[in-house]
């Protein structure tokens, strides 16, 4: 059994953050939030989940920023979910935010 010891302070490292985009507008903002929380919290404790509408010049839909307490949880979430049909069978794009 592998054990992670987490510090429950404000995560400041960018490698603890994932960015999700191409979220279709078939769900409401609240539905997107709830479903993303359910999906991504299964990888580990989440510090922040923010869902926002796309900018006016982009197609309708949403994007989300998800900040984990653990970089390992963020990396696993990104690898497992990128390109998967998670919301209404739409393949989402999920990337890690990394410093550099």
TrEMBL record:
PANTHER family: RAD52 MOTIF-CONTAINING PROTEIN 1 (PTHR31164:SF1). Pfam families: RRM_1 (PF00076). Residues 16-99 form the RRM domain. Keywords: RNA-binding. InterPro entries: Nucleotide-bd_a/b_plait_sf, RBD_domain_sf, RDM1, RRM_dom. Signal peptide: none annotated. This is RRM domain-containing protein. It comes from the Eukaryota. It comes from Goodea atripinnis.
């Amino acid at each position: 059994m592998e054990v992670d010891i987490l510090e429950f302070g404000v995560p400041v490292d960018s490698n603890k953050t994932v960015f999700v985009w191409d979220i279709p507008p078939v769900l409401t903002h609240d539905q997107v939030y709830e479903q993303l929380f359910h999906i991504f919290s299964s990888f580990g404790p989440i510090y922040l989940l923010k869902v926002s509408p796309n900018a006016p010049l982009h197609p309708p839909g949403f994007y989300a920023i998800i900040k984990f307490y653990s970089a390992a949880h963020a990396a696993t979430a990104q690898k497992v979910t990128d390109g998967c049909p998670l919301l209404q069978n739409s393949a989402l794009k999920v990337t890690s935010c990394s410093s550099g």
